[in-house]
Amino acid sequence: MRAAPTRIHRSASCHAFLVVHGVIEPGFEPVAAQLASQLARTRGGAAVCVYHRGRCVVDVWGGVKDEDGRPWQRDTMAVSYSTTKGVVSTALHVLADRRELDYDAPVARYWPAFAQAGKSGITVRDVLAHKAGLFNIRDLIDDARRMLDWDHMVDALAAAAPAPVPPGATAYQALTYGYVVGELIRRISGRPVPQFLADELAGPLGLDGLYIGAPASELHRAARLVGSPARRARSGGADDDTFGAQRRRRQRLFRAAERALRLFGHPVDFQRAAAALAPRGISTFDFSNDEVLQACIPAANGLFTARSLARLYATLAAGGSLDGVRLLSPETIARATEIQSQGYDQVTIFRMRWRLGYHRVGSFRGVPPRAFGHFGWGGSGAWGDPDSEVSLGFVVNTGSGTPIGDLRILRLTTAALACARRSPRR
Fold first, then answer.
1. N or C: which end of the chain has fewer CB within 10 A?
2. Are the C-beta atoms of residues 36 and 62 closer than 8 Å to each other?
3. Which candidate in 82, 308, 380, 423 is catalytic?
């Protein structure tokens, strides 16, 4: 592999070379060049890692890790929002692989209190495929800070009544998903999510940064969100009037988009999306401060390196085994990555092709049919593709996008797949 720092991208705007650090296998330079191009247009930092045929072929990073301009380092981790769901789902699949969990069993078999309010028939599969109707966090809690209290969240979900989800449809459980999956892990294994990840994923695979509920000793490695309204609010840089004006502008935009989409027969409902994505107080909830990073929010606050994500998905894409470590059986991976739905998701408004905790992977050159992974708000993402034998992890500390990423992850995916297609077999 070729070592960096490497001058691989000239910014058209500033006419200067942007340095990206790390290592690149010959033939995969376009992935690093794409990262450099993205960093040239943003204020923050990012890292991308690619595995191909079981080997790390790209591991690069650049930019800054916080508003103070400290440089992104090799070991920097970033909060990755919904990319977290793919990781916690993989942890649950470990229990299924050991036959300690049945996907088609009611959740209440493992968590009896969950049967309240008409949920006795909701299965583990329903939850993993976003068919359980438990997306409405706005009516579940009175403030976003409740998400820091595990017992409060699982008690509230146990008592909650599900919303109806039409047959064949899904409704993305943007923030509630992780508490249900995490409580299943805790009740079946006897270990909380952070400990289970350390014991069963990070430890065996030698992952250098994979936390949901990070220990205080690792917080010095954490990137902080750059340009985040929540961080500005905490530092006194924005007031309630500013947030109110921004919210009203978003609402007008959403209403216009909703009317336009419905003209084309799209079953969009942004009120449902808001209920899933925006508990009260979310505009001032900083996902990258120490208190939040040390909490366990298994749908949204994973603190990862790109390297750890790429290696985890390389294991899955290779049939569950990498470098002599068996994480899952090929049979369990086949079950976990089987498509569960084909229609539009009622929250994300996209055709997600949900698997059991993963969704489809897009690129600007088509959709790899067997690729699976999970992307996140803010632009991060991770995926694996058994056909091309490629996996990718991307973490970043600036951006917004959609609940499941933005165009940056699509561009990196496109570059990685193109490089893999051109790579000769060794």
1. C
2. yes
3. 82
